[in-house]
Amino acid sequence: MVQLSLGGATALAQNPIPIRKHVAAAVLWILHLLGTWVVVGAGSVLLYGLGVNAIYGGDYALAGFAQVLAVAWLAGKIVIWEETKRHEARIAIRVLVAIVALAVVTFSIGWIRYSRWSVGIRNRIERLTNTTFSGLT
Question: What is the Cα–Cα distance from 5 to 15, expressed in whole angstroms?
Answer without folding.
Answer: 7
